[in-house]
Amino acid sequence: MQIELAQLSGREGDIAYNLDRALTQIERSHDDTQLIVFPETHLTGFAEPSHVEDRALAIDGPELTALKEASRQRDLAIAIGFLERDAQRVFNTTVLITPEDGIALRYRKTHLWPDERELVTPGDRMVCGVWRGRRIGLLVCYDIEFPETARALAAMDTELIVITNGNMDPYGPVHRSTAIARALENQAFVAMTNRAGNGVDMTFAGESAIVDPLGQLVTELGRDEGVARATLDFSRRDVARRDYHYLDDRRIPLFGRLDELPDGQRHWLLN
């Protein structure tokens, strides 16, 4: 699988600008790119006090419609984050958009950073689905600091864990380290795109990366805006599991329960 990490900056509340940057990057992607990953809440910017509902987007709104059309035109999948409005609630959401299904996966961030806990609603499940023969799962930013989130995806046989990220100074090294750990301990690929630049009185750390199932870096970026491109060789997963298989060997159970949907999506429902 050919994948691109689009490590971009964004503007809080400037949805037209953020969408245009995403569409431009999609148009510039290589012809053989199959998946492009953007940062956490890239479309809307972060939630802030007094700026939640005014930034939140509907899942069937024009912004997502434009991205679905871009996905079809370029024949690639898109992982991108935004604040999602659903009735009276707002979620920190990341979607996987595919040419075949439009919004193929919707994941609502389950582990909220302290600053957003009074602003958005946490999700209640981990999600993954199959696209072109590969099972892909989604996480958002702070989720990666909890081993159980990636382990739930791995328990559903996820091969590629995609993380939209908005990690800031001074915590940049934390997510680089945890991306390696989550890949290694679950023997799966991890693709993490972080935000760059400044916003909401923070400096974002960049350092987007792809890590293989052996815990080895495939590619990484520095702190500035940029695009990383790599080929995922899924035979590395077989190599990682040749002599031992952490999921089979574990003795401590994972809490929650599995729900399998008719379309092949799997949800791990949280207690």
From TrEMBL:
Q: Which GO terms describe its molecular function?
A: hydrolase activity
Q: Which Pfam families match?
A: CN_hydrolase (PF00795)
Report domain CN hydrolase positions: 1-234
Family to which the UniProt record says this protein belongs: Belongs to the carbon-nitrogen hydrolase superfamily. NIT1/NIT2 family.
- The name under which this protein is listed is (R)-amidase
Source taxonomy: Bacteria, Pseudomonadati, Pseudomonadota, Gammaproteobacteria, Oceanospirillales
